Each structure stands twice: as C-alpha cells, then as structure tokens.
Amino acid sequence: MAVDNVRYRIGKSKGFRALTFVFAIACMVPLTAILFFIIRAGITRINWHFLVNIPRPVGEKGGGIANALVGSVIIIALASVIAIPIGILAGIYLSENRTGRLAYWCRLAVDILQGIPSIVIGIIAYFWLVKPLGGFSALSGSAALAIMMLPVIVRSTEETLKMLPPSLKEAAFALGMPFHRVVLKVILPVGISGILSGIMLSIARITGETAPLLFTAFGNPYLTADITAPMQSLPLLIFNYATSPYNDWHDLAWGASMILLLWVLFLNIFTKLISAKWKVQL
Amino acid sequence: MPTSLPAPAISTPAVRDTVNIRRRIRRAFRQIRTETVFKQALVISGLLLVILVLGILLTLITQSVPSIRLLGFRFIWGSTWNPVKDVYGAFPFLLGTLLTSFLALLISIPFSMAIAIFLGDYYPTGWFASLLKNAVELIAAVPSVIYGFWGLAVLVPMVRGLEVRLGMQQPLGVGIFSASLILSIMIIPYAASLGRSMIQMVPGHLKEAAYGLGATRWEMIRHVVLPYTRSGLFAGILLSLGRALGETMAVTMIIGNSSILPKNLFAPGNTMASVIANEFTEADKTVYLSALIELGLALFLVTVVINIIGKKIIDRLTND
Amino acid sequence: MVSLGMLSLLSCSDRAHQLIGAGSSFDNPLFSKMFYSYFQSRGMKVNYQSIGSGGGISQLINRTIDFGASDVPMNREQDSLSPAKVLHVPITVSAVVLSYNLPELKDTLCLSPQVLAGLFLGKITHWNDTAIARLNPGITLPDIPVVIAHRSDGSGTTHIFTSYLSRVSGEWDDKVGRGSSINWPAGLGGKGNEGVAGLIRQTHGAIGYIELAFAMQNKMAFGKIRNRAGRFITPGIASISEAADIKMPADGKATLADTDAPGGYPISSFSWVILYKEQDYRRHPKEKADNLLRLVDWMIHDGQRYSSELYYAPLSPAAVRAGEAILGSATFDGNPILTHHN
After folding, report:
1. Chains that touch C (3 or more CB pairs under 8 A)
2. Contact A67, A54 (CB under 8 A)
3. ipTM (interface pTM)
4. Is residue B150 included in any domain, yes or no?
5. Mean pLDDT of chain A
6. Domain CATH number, residue B174
7. Is B192 inside a domain boundary?
8. Residue B143, pLDDT score
C-alpha cells in the first residue's frame, strides 16, 4: 500500500512538472505570434537609411526613425536617472521598516502608483510641468515616465531585500559596520539580481509607453538633443504611423517596433554581461 | 567633532597610537554622520513617494471640481455618458474596468505562476531559462499599440469564430472577453518576474530539508516554496492587477467602445482608462474636461480600495 | 539624406527658428508634405503633431504651441477661455464619406440624409429595409442586420458628420445632437479612422463614416449621398471643391454641411489654421511672429499644390482671398505683420 502511494505521489509530481512546462511554454505562443506579425511587415523596411534618417512625408523614399531612436534613448536615460536612485532608496527604506506609519502609507502609495493609467500620469505631468513652464519638453516626458518606473523598482527592491536571510545583516553589524555600509556593500550586492530584474522590467515597460508622452514630450519630426524642447520617441512614432491611412507608414511602424524590441533584448543581454563581469548570480 | 591638530614631528609608538586613535575617532564620527544622512535619505525617499501620490490626488480633485459640482453622486451611478447634453454617468465604464481587469488577472495567474515556478525552481539556469526569461520580459516591452493591432488582426477573428460556434446572435469579435484576453497576455510579466525572483531566493536548506523528509518535487514546492514566497507572489499579482487597471491603448482598440451597459462577457463595453484616452484631447467644454479628470480620480480611488484590500490579504498571508 | 540629418542637427539648438503646431489629425498627411517642402526651400522647421482638433485648440489657449489646426471652429466657451482673439484661416477642405461592407452589391449604394439619420439612430435595422431599397431601385439588398461603426475617440470628423445629421434631421438634433464625442444610440466604436475602417472591413453589413483621404488611400467602397439639390453625389475632389466654392464670411468660419451647390458633396467641411490675432505675447518674439505669418501665408498659396495628390481639395480663389484678409489683420504690438503675400 505504501508503494502505491509513493507511485501516486511521484506521478503527481511529474504531472505537475509537465503542467508547469506546458503553461510556461504557452506564454511563448502569443509572443511569437506578435513577433511574427511585426517581423513579416517590418523586416523589409530595415536598412541603414532607416536607422539614420529622419522621417519623410508620405510618398517620399528614404524616411527613417533616427530622431525617434535618439529621442527614446535620451528620454529613457533621463527617466532612469530620476527614478532608479529614488526607487532603490525607497525600496531599502520599506524593507528596513516592516511596520511603522510612514512605511504603511509609502507601501500603499507605491501600489496606487502602479495602478494609475499612463494617460493620467501624462495629464498630471502636463499640469505640473508643461503648462506652468509654457512648453513641451523631453524633461517633462522623462518625469512622467520616471513616475511610472517607480512602483516596479520599489516593489522589486523591497521584496528582494526582504527575502535575504537576516543573518547576513546581523553578521555585518556584528563586525561593526555602519548602517550605510551594511546596506550598500553587503545587502545590495547580494540582492542585485532581483533589483536589476525590477529595473529591467520597468525600463521595458516605459520603452513602449505612448500616452504619457503625448502631452509632455509631444514629438518632433527633427533630430534634437535639447531636453527642454519637444522630442520624438519610438512609441510615439509607432503610434502615429500605425494609425495613419498609409500602408507605407504602417510598414514603417512595424519596422520601428522591431527595432524597439531588439533594443529591449540588447538591454537585457547587456545587463547579463555586466552582472557576469561583477560575478553576481543572476 | 575633534579638529585636526598638526602631526607631531617625532614618531614614536606612543605618538603613533594617539594619532591612530584620533584618526579612528574622526572616522567614526564621519561614519555616524554618513549613516545619519543615509538614514535620512531613506526616509526622504519614502516621504517623496507619499507626497507624489498625494500631489496627484490633489491635482485630480482640483481639476474635477466643476464636474463634481454639477453632477454630484450621479456620476457614479449614472449609466449615460452624453457629452452633448452634459450628462456624465460613469457606471458602465466602472463595470468594464473591473470586469476586464479581474478576468484578465484570473486568466493570467496560471501562466505567470507557471513561469515563476518553472524558472525559479525547475530551470533557474541554462540557455533555455535565459530564453524564456528574455521572452517574458519582451512581452512587457511590446508597445500597447502593437498589442491592439495584433489583437484586432488575429485575436478578434478567433473570438468571432468562437462566438459563432457558441451560437451568438451578433458575433462581433470585439468585446469584454477579447479585451480581457489581450490584457491577460500583457500583464503576465509582472507577476512572473517578481514571482521568479522570490522563488529563486528560497534558501536551499529549506528545500533540502523537505527532500530529506521524503517529499516529491511537487510536494516540496507546495509545502515549502509556495508558503515561503506567498506574500511576494501575491505582491506580484497585485502589480499585474495594477497594470491591468491602467492599460489603455490595447484595450480601447478591442473592447468595442460602447457606452451601453454590457449584458454578457462577449458584449462590447468600455473602460475608464480608454474613455479618458479617447476623449481627453477633444473635450471642448470645461465641464466635459473635468468630467474626464473626475473619471481619472474615480480610477485612482478604485485602485486605492483594491490595494488596501490586497494589503490586508498579504498581511494575513505573512502572519500565518 | 545624410546631409539633411546633419543640417537639422546643426540648427537644432536654434529654438526661435522653430515653429510648433498641433491639432487635426486629418490635416496631418498634407501638413507633413507641406512642412517638409517648406523646410527644404526656406530652412524653417515646423513641428506639427496630430493630437486632435480639440487638442490643437486647447494647446493654443494654453499658449504651449504657436498655431493650431482644427476641423471645427472654436465654440463660444473656448472663445471665452482664450486669453485673446483667435484668427481662423481656412487651409483645406475635407469630406466625410460613408463606407460600407456589402461586397455582394454590384453598384454603389445611394443614401439620403433621412436614411442616414435612420441608420445611425438605430431605427433602420436591416439592409433590405424599404427606405433604403427605394433609393436603390436597381440593386438587390441582402437581408442582414446593419452594424454601425462610429468613432470611439473624440474627433473633428465626428463633429462634421453629426453637425450634418443635426442639420438634416430634426429627430437627430433632438435626441443626439452634434459634438466631437457623442452618446451614440447604436453601433460599435473604433479608435481613429483606422479603427472604424477595421470594424467595417471585418464586419459584413457594417457601415461607418471616415475621411475621404483615408477611404481613397485604402480603396474602400463608399456611398453616394443625396444633396439638397436632389442629386446623388459621389464624394471626390471635384464635388468637394464645388461645395467649398462659396462666398466666404469675413472671419473665415464657413459651414459647408448640407450645401446647396447643385453638384456639391453635402458632408464637406473646411479645416482651419488658428493663431492669435495679436502676436505679441510671452515667449513669442517678433521674429517668431514673422516666421509664423509667412508660413501660413505660404500654406494658403504655394502650399496648396500638394493637396490633390494626397486627395485633399485645394482652396478656392475666394477662400484664399478671405485667408489673405484674415492674415493681414494679424498684428504685432498693434502693427500689421504681413507686408506682402507670396
């Protein structure tokens, strides 16, 4: 009888493993379908001119996405510079203070922030930064995107640090290390994998966001690096082209989407290389 | 803080000791100062987040005032949204938002949990794991517009075929069900990624203890890993729900955009976020604009309520 | 091509040398062609984003842009919210066509204003209804339900179409009214022209309203509408131009809906560029005002040559003259800006 039970349990375990496998693989199906959808139309458009030229009106050959590429890089870099330090610090604060009034409200604030639709954040950024300053700018767009990055970074940092065994921290304190050293030199490096995952996810999220940039960065058909002026970004360009009446422009939109996805992929690979160099486990 | 005195001219062991002690005292004070500054920085960043959300709430409220004054509570219960006659009732949109988000969450949970367990426990390393991990993150990076277009081109005809098979009178293909489907795909990465990190960090000795007691893999996962990571997994699920509540572009292309109360899951509907996105730039009256911002405020409050309930559940899970 | 990129990089820091505009998405393809050509000939950069007619108006009121473009003139409330008087310069003419998905029809569908109102009010539910059949004697209409496709997002196109319906149907005016965003009695919403077109293409028996340029670009079937003179008119550059060939009011805000021109298409409308009459305001120096006026002046004269190839109707001579007069009234600190026309 005991033998039967063991075989049943092992069978259940194997069954669960198969089920997990099936469900996990199933997630790849829509992704491959979407990639296929984009690549089929977009691959014909990608060439050197596509990457270094600025857009041309309909009917003219040789238009490209250079302004959107540069613009996206600048806007996202700026947003990251704003969001990552604050996000990580807040995450550390929350993991150090499980209880406490401020921690409770802060945690609630983070969860609420995650649920605010991107368009509302764009509207807020408009009322705070664009209207008072009298003009659209890449800076206001980055601010809106930074607000969207915060919840994911804070949450990942907090949950990762919470999972670390307390013995690590206690050992460091026992050796007489001051608090900031303990956090920066012991806790953070061990938890860097989870934190980096959170950062990567938040960057991936904002790379494809259109709505917050509509009333902040506004868009610009020309190449510019001036962050106090309107700037184009890839998702804005994709949105404009994809919803236009011209099949020509639709193909440009799919080509740009391919570039966008490739970019996120490269960012991921880059992160892996960096963490391999630092010899941390990812 | 002790001021620095000039270094003594003669260097003897006794002199060196005092110099070292002074250095150490200076360093200790410096470290305490840095420590205090660092702790203050932590508190400030926590405070910053709260102030940010309060600021958003304040801006939303002040901009909604004209509409609140005109409509009062009719805004929440009314089922008619008529910008021409200035009648604004948000109930169909509220229903649409809640229906699509929760349905999407329900559909996505098995998949995101499967990925989390698969990558966290079964295959944490290896080329296949990296491939799957990148694929999942890529799902989050695809712009919503692309999801909308792909949904229209591929998903909607499939759902239309399903509706025909089910014998529905008007097989439209667009509707709440299709929107929930596309949403469920889009929100997978959030629960999956956080869940994977959590599961990967379960200490090895706990797992080995379970094996030592004769547990199968499944039993170990069920009785050790899952309870240990319960709060983190739920936090990830809340992140996914948050994303679903706020998603605009893809939903608005697939939900059918009808302001009439949906009769069943396959009927067209509308969500608060997509109404705001659709009508914000064209709102040509002050009351209209403030009604839309009041819709944003309503969405904000819905998120608050759901999160408070979620946190209570997490607390319950963590304390057990 | 590369040199063009280099040129734009070099002059990108010169912000006074750039003009910012926003508004109607209908005008976007035409404007992109116009501004590209203007940059090549005059070296002036114009940044135009299609955020919608209402967006163009509200951004101009907020003074975050230099000029706006709208398919709908400013209403009374917007006028009162605006810090100063706004000029409306007619820039091109658009038309709204009714596109449908009935591949079994061998001939173009003919529709009357009353039938249109009946369809969109949800009162005519099947295609073989007698009201439709009476207008199309030679065609056999199928017995399938009518699916209405309308815009889910606020849009100048909706405004044009619903204004027309309000004019020709008292019942529509009573029950629904006109606006960029209305409470549709029936049908499904699609986002943008693309959304409506997608709905039409995918649903057998669907009918919806889209812009002419869009329908022509995508080779969609659209119907003939009976105008006030009783003729069934096919929308096209000729019939729109005929509807737009009217005596222009001094402020440029003319309505073309339900035109009484014998060969004119009844659902046409002007599209306007809007700017402030008094160009001396904060962050708007004289150089910018000069550049702006010169740009709009060019748009109503030389810029019109790009219209037809993109399926826009060029301005009639009367409209151009009215535009010149309106532009001539723009001042900087009280002094008129334009001294000559190009």
Report:
1. A, B
2. yes
3. 0.83
4. yes
5. 85
6. 1.10.3720.10
7. yes
8. 80
